[in-house]
## 1
Amino acid sequence: MLKQSGNKAGSSWRVLTSLLQINRKLWPQYVFLIICIILAAGIDVAGTEAFRRMISAATDSNMGALRESLLLAGGVIAGTVVLGSCASLLTEFVNYRSSVHLESLMVQKLLHMNIASHRNYHSGDLVKRVSDNARNGQIALNNNLMDGFRVFAVIVLNLVYLSAINILFTVSCLVVALLLPFALKYLSRKLNVIYGHKLDAESALNAFTQECIDGAEVVRTTSLGERTDSIFHSKYAEFMKWTKKGIWFESLTNQVNFFIRIGGMIFIIGYGGVLVKQEIIGVSSVVAFILVFWRMLNPISNAMVMWPRVQNSLSQLSRALEILEMEEERGIHNGNEMSRNSSEPTMVQFSNVSFAYSPGRVALDTISFTVKAGTVTAIVGPSGSGKSTILQLLLGFLQPASGEIRIGSALQAERDVLQWRSDISYISQEMYVFSGTFFENIALGKLDATLTEVMNAAQKVNMHDMIMSTPEGYGTLIGEGGLTLSGGECQRISIARALLKQASLFVMDEPTSALDGENEAAIFREFKNMIKDKTLIIVSHKPLRLEQVDQYLYLDHGQIVEQGTYEQLIARKGKYYNLLNGYEEEHDIA
Amino acid sequence: MKHKGASIFLRVFTYVKNGNNLLLFGLILLMVDVAFNIGIAKVQQSFLDVLNQGDFKRLSFYLIVFSICFLLAMLLTFVGYFFREYSFSMLTRNFQFDTFSMLNKLPYEELKGRHSGDLISRASYDVQDCCRHLKDGLFGIFENALQFAVALTYLCFINFPLAVAVAITGVLIFFCSSIFNPKIRKISSEIYNKESDIKNLIKEMAQGISVVKAYGLQSYFGEKYAKYRRDTYRLYRKSILTNVFMQQLLNIMRESVWIIGVFLICLSAINGEMTVGLVLTFTLLMSQVLWPFVIIADRWRTLNNSYGSAYRALDLAAFGQNSQSEKIEVTNPLLPPAEDIAVLLRNVSFKPDKSVEEPLFESFDLEIRRGEKVAIVGASGSGKSSLLKLITGLYRHDSGLITIFDKQVDGTSEVKDFYSYVPQHNYLFTGTISENISFGAISFDDDHIKRAAEAANADEFISRLEQGYHTPVKEGGATLSGGQKQRIAIARAMLKNAPLLILDEATSSLDRRNAMKIQRLLESLPSEITCIFVTHSPASLSFVDRIVILEKGRIAASGSLEELTQRNLLYQELFDSAEV
């Protein structure tokens, strides 16, 4: 999935056209910018003409003509400055707008894409594609494309100017100039592939750096960095390999450019010499040709360096567009105000739900169960039994291959996914805390929450006192770069957030994994009190034995193998009983 | 400021190491480029003279000689370019190796207190950025300065006063652009900060996506992003206006001087002081005297813009070194080595958050004998995990003495060989399962790995996987369950086979079946292995020699299971603390 597929040179046009489509709104600015650029090139030719007139005035010793041409030159400077300012301002404006537009589209995509597709990418890679590849790629592409127009205009206008002197000579100069794209075709294709590999190697490097930061505890206690260094070095060797190849071909591209530049000049003098000998043109015309050809050399050589760069930016952008093409979750995206559901407890029903991560890897096999309104259901089972899959299906992160899921009377397949989720308060296993204040983190559960509401929620999870003891109370920053919280504290924040949401259904993923030194029964009793008589589904790998649980589902290999109340399961003396018994025995020893 | 910038680049420059010769050759070959650029002006003049004289035989002879020179120059510039670029990619590599290894040597507390996005951009983007700018700046300035010098000298021979006037204007252009530099630098550093905030926001969105979705926070985060972007728009506008103003000012100066120069030469040609051929040469050389200054000014700006990234990258490297040398105050003299003590904490003080007055541990003492199995229990916030992190050296104590087998814990290497640590939050690296188990081990083979996995009860599930030990692990072990990750982490510790085993809630994310197996593994540890673990599961206390109950950073009670049960302390601690 991370590998780039297919021939990128061939997809360049496709990338380009989809980007044009994305930047529809900026078309007038782009057009105006192009006009500025073409006019500036025209002024440039006028500058050459002014220069030619000065020289001819000098050869003719015509003082009046020299003064006139000085006036023309002054006009050229004024025009250059005015048009140049317009072009620069527009360029920068368009660069910022288009790149930020693409980035914000990608941010939206990131927020709305299917979690299933999200998981196919390393999160570091995703971030790089969104914030680095998209923006820098778009800016580079704009610059290169506008340079392209500039180059095109300069070449065309100068050729028109030269044609006025001698058409045949001009055409043969053009033929020399046209050697460039031919030489370039092969080199750019090569470079394109190399740049793609280089980018992949670079993101592998960054992903590894990110891992070393995330796994800092492991790195610091297992090795002294020799091992991480050596892995990094071997990953870097791959990057270096492509860098070296890239330099080689860049250098070759430069040389081709150099060859055409000077070779062209030799050609003009040689061919011009022949023409002078045949007295078709005068020596002064050769001078003019050399001058204009020199004026054109820079744009042409720019085009040489620019085309590989366009390819490079397109290969960056195709990494970004790959994300934009990801499937989105069904439902509304612009966050339109939706009717809130009542927070009355509701029932949850799975009927004949199946799911497979990939063909042959069945995670859930025709599961059916009902959670009655206001009751507590615990889904237990060993790791990999399909517990989390049930949760992901319930949250709409995954879509069932077959079967139906209902909350109350609402059928999941028929409802907007955002609206569907508004019925659920989810307490994740990871207890993700975002950078921001305590207040902001809790208020994520209800965005228009007042401080009092947030404080109430914090009080319910016993975090209020802790929060008030920090220097800035609810305004204290937490998350990355802020105050570090313990696992238990993060979970409490996450429960407070869920409480604030006031949904009809609570879903809790591995509630006890982050808690230490605290009895899960006590925590749970407390939690049950907080949510009152709401419907609750708990997923746990432990054989929770809690008085409040009305129904247990024991899952194994994607199937519900046992189902019932605690008493029923005990009476059955099945898997749950065995699991619990093993636990009880040890408990007694303790 | 300029001096500081120069010294910073000098430090970056030392990373070129073995690429030194390549770089030197590359620089020497840059002279070929310059010579060719200047020579072209002279060559054209001679061609025109020959043309004017109508000597076509000499013209073809000149053309052949020039073509040969040209091919030679092409070869040399090709090699030169390759040398220059390659030596700089070597410099980048060496620099990046260094920042990467410094990143891993950064003290744990320091690392946790920083944005990981910031660290990554320092360790990779900043390094590459500053190296690229340094390369462009260095070569650009060198080539253009050389070109300027040669062209100016030549120009002086043709018309001295005019040459001096052109040179002065070049210098003026240069100074004019350097006036704007500080202003531009200030805005770009503001932009950089804002951009890194945005990057961090995007990173959190990507990582916390399940919470974002479950709470329907898409539009909340979408708007937060949009607000940040509105802020950057203002900054960019300011930056764009300043930049364009400066560029156009330079343009006016350059163009006016060029046109006035041409006018003056033409005037002298009319007065009969020059030929038309010389006018052409002079104008070509004049642009070569004016242009280098503009380019140098531009490259100078590039260098200045990259100063920030060079500084950030070097700061990371420097920080690692500084904190390594920071000494821990030892209040007690070293005790005579005690044979049977595995872990010793004497008079240890530790403040987890330096801004908070109250230390977590104060004059904390703890001794653990060799072979002793010790369980640490206590409510959350009592300091259990912190205690383990102090012993492992992840946290650095403020004062006092901590030793493991008589070796002082002070962030040096040798202590780490004596313990295996299984953290509470396990982290797996991208790679195979086998690579993850062997991460950190010095010598091992496949058999060792398998045995370690068996000991950690991981072999069972690993063998069932299609690719067995070579199954790839995705980011953070996303494809594995919590229990599987935990078992791999324990296998990692088993493979290291250190005399001291430290586990932080080793069984918290395991299901009962697996937890019991790990439990048995701990029970059956050889008697010479010392083991310390934090737990909240009463079941795992059955076999330990000693239980230490922590309460707000001090030992509330300590003793065997029987003693504590008799004193009725243990259950109170384990169960009642949670009854809020």
## 2
Amino acid sequence: MSISREEVEHVAHLARLGLSEEEKTRLQRQLSQILETMRAIDQVDTTTIPPTAQVIPLDTIMREDVARPSAPVDDILRNAPSHEAGFFRVPPVLETGDRDL
Amino acid sequence: MAVGAPPRYEAVVGLEVHSQLLTRSKMFCGCSAEYAGAPPNTQVCAICLGMPGTLPVANRRAVELTLMTGLALNCEIPDASKFDRKNYPYPDLVKGYQISQYDLPFCRGGWIDVEADGGSRRIGIERVHLEEDTARLVHGVDAAGRACSFVDVNRSGAPLMEIVSKPDLRSPAEARVYLQKLRAILRTLGVSTGNMEEGSFRCDANVSLRVVGESELGTKTEVKNMNSFRSVQRALEYEIGRHTALLESGGRVVQETRGWIEDRGLTVSQRSKEQAHDYRYFPEPDLPPLFIKREWVAELQQALPELPDARRERYVSQHGLTPYLAGQLTASAETADFFEQTVQIYPDPKKVGNWIQSELFRLQNEAGDDDASGSVPQPEHMAELLRLLDAGTIGGSAAKQVFDEMYRTGAAPAQIVESRSLTQVSDSDALSGVVDDVIKANPSPVADYRGGKTAALGRLVGEIMKATRGRANPSLASELLRTRLNQPDS
């Protein structure tokens, strides 16, 4: 199982990582090895096992709709590299930009 | 297709609606979901900020409101459901992913009937699912004058329900009516305020064209940024026109996302397919799957309020209205409430319904007011106006003026009649001077009438109404005119 250089570039773009040519070469090799290792799972016969998204023996956990106090705004902003007037401050993003819901 | 005949196209439209839900707390934490007016980042905790080590827990009421919506939209409610992560990097998404639902939504496969373009059509609902809202971005400059964006996380994590229609809509007008009906249903259920301008009810549209009679769809575009019913209709008209012009000139439609620019009346490209997202959905590991008990679904089904369709049927059977008028009255919850409250105190449903259809809808259209609540007068005022009309205190044309002012200012009809001197003149002495003046000033219709063309009387009555600013009692005016004109020329 190997992945292409284009796939490495695509995944790096999705993660917003800038990679050098050298790093791309190394990651292409490493990611291919990781996938190869994971292929061991393919050998398990899963014909009798239903598709499983969770292995924790819990389901249908919900809480009642009750509001409780939020954290102080100073605590919320404490880890931010940059903030102003109570807002987190980030590099400018275009208003018609890359947003989706 | 006949040789030389250009292909005829039809529009294929599907809508994605995002609606905020009326809960007290956010979707996965206990922060208040009522963030309007709160200072930035004051309704935030470690969970909705996505701090490491925190765990989300689903809000039961938000799930319940979503199930209620699904039931009202005739959806199937599957037994099993789960949440998934939708990954994309953007500053309004503090965790780097949005908790949403991918392949197991709470509701799927429903429909609503929509009355538009002179007929009724059944529009399919693909799915209804639950997710969390994003942070609010404000674009500007910082204290040092550098361009930057500011992030307010208060909205982030508020419950957001997405309703996806099948691509069953065929015209901009139909899309608008579908949206209005959907909003009426959500408001009737009490799951959402449905306010588009405030962003609690948002709509994106997928648009493509196909040759009439063929099943293959053309390339689609997605249109965003429409924040009123009117702008949805206008944006779709524009986009369908753009596709048509492209196809007819031998061009091709590019698959892309386009933003509607309201004040310029057009859509512009925002993102092409080449940059399209790869969301890498995967099951949310922090939230266990949900199994929806049939007893819960049955309970919710039982407790559903009277929905717009049932209301329309009742207006036909109970009030004797035409299905068309009943459909129009029940298209918005405000209008239907206004109708019912008025009929309770002025029990003439046909008259009330006709006033709404001819006068209220006209004023609402003129005002471009197709979204805001409170765009109906007080039911007490409507009843009072109709009573003034019945008693002959005001005439029909004055009543329209009163209604107009009542709608705009909220003043009571009696006050308006008083302040604008609109009382109907039913006193022959007071009118006879005007009748004389009109006869003198209009020799040609007078001659026509006397020459046997009795229809000319209508024009003279019209002149009297004009001269009295609509205050003259029209039947008295025509009676006085007839008497005078049948006398020998003086």
